[in-house]
Give the backbone structure.
Amino acid sequence: MMMQGVVLLLAGMGIVFAFLALLVCVMTVAAKIVPRFNHILPDEEPKKKPRPAAPASDDAAIALAIAVARSRAA
């Protein structure tokens, strides 16, 4: 009974290992082949979102006016 369990364990692990090794090989080959056909369906350029304009701050305008007034008064 133990021997059958060990055989089943080794068979299952062997099948999983073979599948994963095949998967790695297929992915490696696909990574080399796919770029050759990239001109058929190229990736889209990511759209750049326009940066929102900084809202005019009343505090900044007031500070600028005070600074100008002080520089002219001195």
In short: Helices lie at 2-33, 58-73.
